[in-house]
Fold this sequence. Notes:
By secondary structure, this protein is an alpha+beta fold. Among the domains are: about 90 residues, 3-Layer(aba) Sandwich (Rossmann fold); about 70 residues, Dna Ligase, domain 1. Helices cover about 30% and strands about 30% of the residues. Strands 10, 11, 14, 15, 16, 17, 19, 22 and 23 form a nine-stranded antiparallel beta sheet that branches. A five-stranded parallel beta sheet has the order 3-2-1-4-5. The radius of gyration is 21 Å and the shape is globular.
Amino acid sequence: MDTNYNVLLIGSGGREHAIAWKLKKSPNLGTLYIAPGNPGTAQCGLNVKLDTGDFPKVVEFCKDHSIDLVVVGPEVPLVNGIVDFLEKEGIAVFGPQKKAALLEGSKQFAKEFMVKYDVPTADYAVFSADEFDDALTFVQSKDSYPIVLKADGLAAGKGVFICDSEEEVKKRLNTLKHDSKLQDAASKLVIEEFMEGEEASVFVISDGHSSHILHNAQDHKRIGDGDTGLNTGGMGAYSPAPVLTDDMLERVKVEIIERTITGMQLEESAYQGILYVGLMITENGPKVVEYNCRFGDPECQVIMPTLENDLLNLMISTTEQRLDELSIQLDGDYRCCVVLASEGYPGAYEKGKTITGLNEVDDESIVFHAGTKQDGDDVITNGGRVLNIVGRGSTLKQAIDHAYKNVKKIHFDGCYYRTDIGHKGLDRVS
Ligand code: AMP
Ligand code: GLY
């Protein structure tokens, strides 16, 4: 690889801090800009103010700063077509084009795609906004609960409802119909069979033709211990996930990943970038719960430290369609990430609490910032998910213990975290 690639990374969460931290290790990195970034990414490169929803402005920035590669962290710019826009201007971008990002941007598209290419997933039906009465009739005819209602489009994790009764279905149909925040996402509705099993996710890097599994992880979506309470963006993750045995991973590769990558080629939407495959491991094998067109957050925070490859090289090889020349190297250890959140999250919470203890974590653990802000010499809270503490171990138990030992060194008013990250994995290995 030639030297000194200037990179613009888009995003501001823990995922982007983890990507920036890993890119920074590349000997071929020139200047790394992060838009808008956070106090953690500021330790890896230059945070810049840039309206990343304004694509012409992004092009202007790339030209002014001789950017060689743009890396897009979150889904919204991808689904809105940032890759197509920048590529037309001759700028290399790591991430899927708009048509390929539909795998996350439209659940209807994803479901129809999976049926067409024989990718195992839950049975489903689709209704448009003016067919909500038909949707109810459909649910009544099934008379099988729980049943899952999903808004078709992006809804920041707030468009999926698992309903235990007809009453709840009626209530949620009303939410989907009337909640102004869901209007765009819920112009179509997907109703899905409920899949019983344990969830895990597999992260694939693909250049459209060749692909590799980077690694796997398990997220903890609910706010409370024992997977109780409201859904969140993710309260912690660990990697690898023991539920994904070698046999199961082989099935995921053959029945899901190969069919997905080939299917997207046949659709003339070759998938380039990170494909997040959210799985339910059922008694009949792996089934897809969802596709995402980006890294997971906090799953990225446990995968980046495990990956031994040069991430910049992987990303450049992806944009140049040379992934077949590389193989993925992992360090073989476990990682566990505990998310520290603001009290009240995922509902209303206060910001501006001073964070202490950041310098007291040991050298082997990593703190990735998310909702934080620099305030003079202090770092203060500035979001729902505030910090990610990542521990390492040669066993899952060691990684979990290591993460929690360091969690206890960090303080801010109203700091909340789950105390059981990794519990399902531990149950399987012990
Ligand atoms: P999604 O945004 O489609 O991933 O859905 C969010 C979460 O809802 C998933 O991570 C699962 O925990 C749950 N979920 C979604 N679809 C199903 C399903 N068909 N069966 C069981 N759980 C589901
Ligand atoms: N942690 C779940 C997600 O990134 O979608």
